[in-house]
Structures are given as C-alpha cells and as structure tokens.
Design a protein that fits this description.
Elements: E1 23-25, E2 30-32, H1 37-41, E3 50-52, E4 75-77, E5 82-84, H2 86-89, E6 99-101, H3 102-209, H4 213-219, H5 224-228, H6 248-255, E7 281-292, E8 299-305, E9 310-316, E10 322-326, E11 331-335, E12 345-348, E13 354-358, E14 363-368, E15 371-377, E16 381-388, E17 394-400, E18 406-412, E19 415-420, E20 437-441, E21 447-451, E22 456-460, E23 466-470, E24 481-486, E25 492-496, E26 501-505, E27 511-515, E28 523-528, E29 533-538, E30 543-550
Antiparallel strand pairs: 1-2, 1-3, 4-5, 4-6, 7-30, 8-9, 9-10, 10-11, 12-13, 13-14, 14-15, 16-17, 17-18, 18-19, 20-21, 21-22, 22-23, 24-25, 25-26, 26-27, 28-29, 29-30
Amino acid sequence: MDPQHSGQDVLRCDHCEALAPKLYCDICHHNLCKKCVGEHILDESKKHNVVPFKNRRSTVFYPICPKHTTKQCELFCEQCASPICSSCVSSSDHNRHKFLDIFERQREDLQKDLHELETYIYPRYQQMASNIIAQKADLCQNSQKLTINLNKQRETWQKEIDTIISNLKSNAKEMETKQLGLLKNQEDNISRTICEITQNIVDLKKLLDSKDMCLLVHEYKSRNAEFRKFPPQCKVSLPIFSPHPIDTEQVQKQFGTLSSKEHVYDNEGTDSGAIPSNSPLLDVPQIKTTINTAIGHSFINSVACRSGEEIWTCGVDSIMIMKLHNLQGQLLKSIETKSRNVPSDIAVTRDGSLVYTDPSDRTVNIVKNAKPQEVIRLQGWRPRSACVAKSGDLLVIMLSDDIQRTKVVRYSGSIKKQTIQFNDKGQPLYSSGPTKKCITENRNLDICVSDYMAGSVIVVDQIGNLRFTYTGQPTKRQFDPIGVATDSQSRILTAGSNDYRIHIIDQNGKFLRFIDNCHLQNPCDLCMDTKDNLFVAENRIGKVKKIQYCGTIIR
C-alpha cells in the first residue's frame, strides 16, 4: 500500500522518513520536512514549488511545451489556437500575435461550458424527461379511453347483432305461420273429400247388395270423375338461413380502426412535416398564385402562413393593420394592434395564433380570440422581428434605444432564456441601425438572421455560436438580404432586395440556386407553408406570390 495515500499509515517525509512533514512539493508530489527542503530543490532538472502541507495540490499545472521541453505552456495564442510557452512568444512564428493566460482562457471555456450545461442543456434534458413522463401518463390515460370506447363499440355492435337476429327469428316465425296455414287448408279439403269418398264407397256397397234396379237406374250417379280430379299438391318452401362469409377487412373498416402518427424524432420532438427527404429543387420554379392585398394595405412589410390556404400580412393602413387573406385574395379577418401602432413583424404559433411586434410600444403581443394580449414588454430595447421556434419559444430581434446595439433573445412565454449578441471574440454578430432584419429557426435548430445593413445572412447554432455568414454571389448589384425562410430540407432562402432574386443555400452556407424567373418587385419578406411552398411579399404593390420551387409539379 502506498504510504502517501493510505489513511491507515502515518505521513512521513519522502526523503528521511521523518514523521508528520510540514511541507509539500506541489510539482513533485513529495512530502518534505524542513531539513530536506534544501536537498530537494537542489535538483535543478525539475521545477519545484514547496508549499505548506495544508496547501498541497494548489499549484496550477501547465502542459509541457513540445518545442521547449523544459518550459511549460502558460500562454495561449489566439491566432494559432494553441498553447505556447514564454520562449515561443519571442519566436517569429508568433510575431504580432495576441496571447492570453492559458489558465484564464481555460477557465473561461469551462465557465462557458458550465453555463451552457446549467442554463440550457441540463434544463432541456429535464424538460425532455418531464415530457416523457407526461407522455407516459397521457398514453395510459388514452389507453383507458380506448378500452372504454372499444367496449362501447362492442356493445353497440352486439345490440345491432341481437336486433338482426331477433328480426330474422320473427321473419322465420311469420314464414312458418303462413306455410302452416296453407297446409291446414289443404289438409281440411283433403279430409273432407276422404269423408265423401268413404261415404260413397258405403253407398255403392249397399246398392250392389240391393235388388232394386230402380235405384240403380234412376238414382245412382257416379262421382268417380269428380274424385278423379286430384287437387294440386301443396309443397311448402322451407326457410333457409344463408350466412354471408365474413369479410374481415370490411368488418374492420365498419367497426373502426386505430390510427397514430408515425413516430418522428428530432431535437425538439417536433413533427417532421409532409415533404419527403428527396424534395429536389426545380429547374424552373412556378408561380402558383398571386394574392392581391393592395385593397387592405397601402404597402405590406411582412407575411406569415397560417395554413396552406391562408396568410397573414401586415403593413400600413388607415384603419386595420394586420389582415388574414385566403389564396384568392379575399379578406377574412382584420386585427388592429392594441396600441394602434404599425407592427414591425408578424409570426404564427403552432396553434395558429398570431404574434406581432410593436416597436413603438416596446411590446411583443399575441392575438387570442381576436384580442391582442401583451406577452413581453421591454425597457431600453425595442422589438423588431420575431419567429416561433419549434420548441414553442419566441425568438425576438431587438434594437437598443440608441440604435447602436442589436441582439436576439429567446423567450419562453415572457421569461428570457437566452441572449445572442456577440461572437466568440466579443464582436457584435449583427449590425446596428433601424434597417430591417428578419429571423427564422432552421430544422437543425440553427438561428438564421437576414441583416440588410450588413449585406449578409448570419447563421448561429442553437447555443449562439457563429456557424457561417452568407454574403451573396458575385454580381453587379450589392447583396441586401431582406426576409429569410427555411424549408423541410434545412435549405435557407433569402430575398435580395436589389437584385429581386431569391437566393437558396444549404444549411452549411453553400450556394445552391437562384429563383430569378418570377418577376419579383420589391420583395420584403418570405415565409413557407408545410409543403415547402414559398410565399414572397412584394412591398410596394401589396402582393404576395406563392411559388413552388421544389418537389414535383402537379399538372
């Protein structure tokens, strides 16, 4: 047993074995008495750090430099993203590079990991575990309801079968009674004729025994010809029950079936949608319909799909601000903002409720039963654009009152859960200023923001780490993205406000294709329905175009 680590042995100096050493070398991990300290530190082949025994193991250990084996890497080079020692600092390899204390940097990384684990990952797993428990309870409760409903259906069918059998028995009895009546009438007629024949036989025998010829000649009349006409023989038809063969499939359909959605697994447990994974981009996208909202708005600045057949729009209007249209352009509903201000953006929740941002009022609101209700109220910031995440959270782009700072904040109801504002070097992710920015969440949970002023689409992961920035394709016109949407294949679509084209990139920022044959005029916002149909709002003419750009064209 190692005496240094055994609780059963008395601690001794590792040099002279003196009892209860008072000192400890934190580098060599040796117990030392005061007499042996000098001898221990004379060994210059190693670095030493002698501390009181009670402070042992408090020294920070750094990795050995691969280039200078006698040195420890106490610094971190940001440009090279690697640990270095003090000798490396003066080398030409790291000329004009920025250095950080490796311990502090590591602690910073650990703090970030700890913060992410405590505030995001761990609560998410707890929520997932709670969801499973709730689903198990729902499953048990639903199973009980199913059993009750199946028993009710069995009783209903049993009553129906009993009624059918009762009717068949009644019909059989009625048939029997009718047939018996026919047989009884024939039996009575035959019995009566038999009696007459019997009497006629008796009379004939008397005449044969008589000697009175007058009776034979004048009174006797033969009835044989009458009796020779036999009545028709009545033969009853016996009722027969012919059971139909059971068509199990048809019986199953009539009785009822169990149905359930296919199990789909993703990071949020959300439904995967109706578009197959091999939904290819079309060589020639088609405009399926054009919805004219000009009657409702002087111009529109945002569009959101409520369903594949209805869209919400918002813009400037003298009376009503947000309007629901069908695809024929008919106005179905008008909603006025609570403050009577023009909303900046709209979105639709999973249950079909309308969400809108009101920068002038500093609020984010949700419309329930045609009445706006305040969900979030800000101080020092104004909400601009918003989207509904797959988890049900709200992602809100907001601008500071001095229009110098922009950030994305995640809310669960009115509770702030996450702020995304800077990259890993502390630099702002998004441009300042009041120009329009749009936001959406991709299927892989990336957060995509179209930044008009920056001329780019900024994509961060769900934690807020920058994944990539898309700055358009080399053209004569500047790339000014306005509006952003994602489809079932995690493709990202954004409108170029100057080149009037839709840019399509994949989830990693690779350019795929333009939609440039749809004659767009001042595109200002995009949204997608569940079948990957793209809706493009045209700002100044008040129209929304529904475009099919992927899948198979149905003619």
